[in-house]
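dumping this here before i forget
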Amino acid sequence: MTTDFRVLVVDDDFHVARLHRDYVNTVPGFIALEPVGSAESALRAISTLRPDLVLIDIFLPDRNGLDLLTELDLDAMVLSAAGDAESVQRARRRGALGYLIKPFEPELLTAKLRYYARYRKLLASSSSLDQELVERALRQLSGAEAAKKTRSVTEQEIRSALQRAGGEHRTALEVAQEIGISRATAQRYLSVLVEEGAASVSLRYGATGRPEHHYSS
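structure:
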């Protein structure tokens, strides 16, 4: 029988905590517990309710959320306005499975939760894990598997667009318009293809007098 993953939100901002709780409840396979607003109340709730996952803020009124991470013998992700490298590194060193910088779009949390569910289910799929299964589970957790699939589709479309040009150079904007993606996305993938040697690039001056990158297969 399938059991929903129980999630505890720890955030001292009442409105933000309720918002994140509601985000969690929209994701199939997850159920949010009543949020708490301090480290002390979090420890009590964890002891009593035994959640599967904690979404914890760093700036709590009684303690730093990163310090609390070291006491939690369960899965946790950090949801914080702190965007400095030190906070991210400390969170990872103390066991955080993910780090989202507030404010963020609901879709980002949804994706993280889905990756987490796949990670948990993959680990639970066998009573005896081998290295390959562990690696697959970790890739699921990071979203690497989904990113790889997304890249393969978009990358192939860009490769095809360059091939259809028959050796003529195309700008990132022209490629983007042809396959229906943003110019920034096309530019990113084209740059990767150039680095991998799958495409070439040259600079040409456009109508505005500014140099433009032109790509060919």
